[in-house]
Design goal:
heterodimer; A: alpha/beta; about 60% helix; B: alpha/beta; 6-stranded mixed β-sheet; about 40% helix; globular
């Protein structure tokens, strides 16, 4: 047994990437999760609409945070387009409080805050917002069902899994089996190899996505209110990014073990920090900026926006642009890495013509 | 990374020129000239020149770590040299059997060859005809539907060679095509290789078997990345310095032991030139010539530097035994 332990330690010492992951990753995860793992919502972006908007806005209590005053007709579109989580519409017999149910934790926090107002009652104008005095309506996810907000996000996680984890294995397997070297000397352009490599995974990811959505809608009753074309475009961009990450990982990994480690390192932060589980607004600024670098963050916005709120493409231009930018960066890097591996840069220089005739031991006429 | 693009373009341009000048290249042959390859601090090839002429077989021989694979990777375009010149035809005109074989274990024999044919742009009918012919000739026809991963080692090698030959390349680069293969399969493989040469391909292959190298038109012997001997097998044998004689048993004297090696059940010893009283008792073959070349280099090193001993046995063991 001693010999076995020594052998394992020696192997572990030489596999520095694994060793670093074992030591550094728990610390990083602990720090990030410590700042990210919070369901507490400290601010609720709110728009106020209607003739008494200014008075209500002036006395808006915390955690409601004014993001603007708009005409009454604009209140619901502000929620639909994700500009606010709560809209207060004045001017009727009693104010109407609209809550975006697709932002589950924020919606629950808003309901809780309104209930607290009813008990404590700070300002007179704000007092009119309590459930007793105002009409409260939860839109897009009236039952505040967890499955309605989780399934669009889980579809994204599955796409990350297929796109990144499986793809990274597929390419690194070629490297390990020695067939990538064969590809390098075949008349295939690196772009052909790259696209040829990812296309089947792309198809599998598309089928996976269709299955997840079908099950989500049919079994869990998740609504699909928006445009399928907008959703498909977002999914296409997202899959492109995840496949690019997969190829990038495989190009820097020597074996399948390393590829899996790196793929998990990209998967885990996406699950934890993309807003799938913990609301982005609850994260501290530093961690939130990491979230903005993750493609799943933008896919979540698109998927929830389209499926639950029927957001049009014009309202989703920002996540689309960020996804496209991420895709361009990742795929360019992956293609360059792939190209470098498939066609190593030559450094040949001309030398005199070869010597002829037999050359035997100790002679260096040829060099 | 940024430098890779123009360098690749230059490499492709060089290949393109070679392709355009194929007639000239065909006459002069393809190959390496003064090529050195460095992996970090280690010099894997040091000023090596080898030529592969159309219709001829050139063999690179040497022990483990001699630099054979590095040389062939350069010749196939898989590895850029640190120094020197590589002359190859266009990429479509190179058939390469890599050390790993370049065969997908999870594809069938037919699927592997189909992929190779498609990648090289062979027309479907042409590909079908060639695949059928090669499979028939190599005895792989019965296994056409089997996964390559389930083939025996010899069958996999045959498949690798067939895949390299399938496009009908002008330059066929084969890395140890017969290593680990049974004698019958070796004969089949040599038939295939000879067939490719007969059809006009320049064949550059590596082998650890000197009896196989004897069949080649040109032989390059590598030792620790440096050329030890090169020429036709007859030229290399004719250039053996000194004499070789049989010994009844392993010599006791350490000085003699450094110059002795075992062939089958017999011992042989090399008498360097100028040793008085020696007679050419044995007619050397290529195996003896390679061993002697290694011993001569070692002796020159020892004499020149005044240090080191005992490498004769390893050179003999590596290349000749």
């Amino acid at each position: 047994m001693k010999a076995m332990i020594i052998k394992e330690f020696r192997q572990l010492r030489r596999d520095r990437r694994t060793l670093a992951m074992m030591i550094v990753m728990p610390v990083i995860l602990l720090v990030i999760l410590g700042y990210a793992a919070s369901f507490d919502v400290s601010r609720i972006p709110t728009v106020v609409a209607g003739p008494s908007a200014r008075q209500v806005a002036a006395t808006l209590p915390r955690p409601f945070e004014l993001v603007g005053t708009v005409p009454a007709a604009q209140a619901q579109p502000e929620l639909r387009d994700g500009h606010a989580a709560v809209a207060i519409v004045t001017g009727g017999a009693r104010p109407v409080v609209l809550i975006d149910g697709s932002q589950l934790f924020t919606a629950r926090a808003a309901q809780q805050a309104l209930a607290t107002l009813a008990r404590t009652g700070p300002a007179s104008a704000a007092r009119g917002l309590t459930p007793a005095a105002a009409s409260v309506r939860v839109l897009y996810n009236p039952g505040l069902k967890t499955s309605d907000i989780m399934i669009p996000g889980i579809a994204g996680v599955i796409l990350v899994f297929v796109g990144t984890v499986i793809t990274s294995l597929g390419v690194v397997r070629e490297r390990q089996s020695g067939t990538l070297e064969q590809l390098a000397v075949m008349p295939l352009r690196p772009r052909d190899v790259f696209l040829g490599k990812i296309t089947p995974y792309f198809a599998v990811a598309a089928v996976d996505l269709a299955i997840v959505l079908a099950v989500g809608v049919a079994v869990f009753g998740v609504p699909f209110r928006g445009s399928a074309a907008v959703f498909a475009l977002g999914a296409l961009l997202f899959v492109f990014v995840t496949l690019g990450i997969g190829v990038l990982i495989s190009s820097v990994s020597q074996n399948q073990g390393q590829a899996i480690q790196l793929a998990i390192m990209t998967l885990l932060p996406q699950v934890l920090l993309s807003g799938l589980i913990f609301p982005l607004s609850s994260m501290v600024a530093g961690v939130r900026w990491i979230a903005y670098l993750l493609p799943l963050t933008y896919f979540n916005e698109i998927a929830r926006g389209v499926m639950l709120r029927a957001e049009p493409l014009t309202a989703l231009w920002q996540p689309f642009c960020y996804l496209a930018l991420l895709g361009a960066v990742v795929v360019t890097l992956a293609t360059l890495r792939f190209r470098a591996f498939l066609a190593p840069a030559p450094r040949a220089t001309a030398v005199p013509a070869p010597a002829s005739g037999p050359v035997l031991a100790g002679s260096r006429e040829q060099s | 990374m940024r430098a890779g693009q123009p360098a690749r373009a230059a490499h492709q341009a060089e290949r393109g020129q070679a392709e355009r000048g194929q007639a000239a290249g065909g006459q002069a042959g393809w190959g390496l000239s003064g090529v050195s390859v460095r992996y970090g601090q280690s010099l894997a090839l040091d000023g090596v020149t080898v030529r592969a002429a159309p219709g001829r077989i050139a063999a690179v021989v040497g022990g483990d770590g001699a630099g054979k694979t590095t040389l062939l990777r350069c010749a196939a375009g898989a590895l850029p040299p640190s120094r020197g010149q590589v002359r190859t035809p266009g990429i479509r005109e190179i058939g390469y059997l890599s050390p790993a074989g370049g065969i997908y274990p999870d594809l069938t024999v037919e699927e592997n060859l189909g992929f190779r044919a498609a990648a090289y742009g062979l027309r479907a009918a042409q590909a079908r005809q060639r695949v059928a012919e090669y499979l028939d000739r190599t005895g792989l026809a019965a296994a056409h539907g089997r996964l390559a991963g389930n083939l025996s080692g010899g069958m996999r090698k045959k498949l690798g060679v067939v895949a390299a030959m399938l496009p009908g390349p002008a330059l066929l680069v084969l890395d140890e095509p017969t290593t680990g293969v049974d004698p019958v399969s070796r004969a089949d493989l040599w038939w295939l290789i000879a067939q490719a040469a007969a059809q006009g391909a320049a064949v550059l292959l590596s082998t650890t078997y000197l009896d196989e190298a004897q069949r080649a038109g040109h032989v390059l012997v590598l030792d620790a990345g440096r050329p030890l001997a090169s020429g036709t097998p007859a030229e290399i044998v004719a250039a053996v310095p000194g004499a070789i004689r049989p010994l009844p048993a392993r010599p006791v004297d350490p000085g003699q032991r450094r110059l002795a090696w075992r062939r089958a059940s017999q011992w042989r010893i090399w008498d360097p030139p100028g040793v008085p009283g020696t007679a050419r008792a044995l007619r050397p073959d290529l195996q003896d010539a390679v061993v002697v070349a290694a011993l001569a280099r070692e002796q020159a090193r020892v004499t020149g530097a005044g240090a080191g001993a005992g490498a004769g046995a390893s050179a003999g063991g590596g290349a000749g035994s």
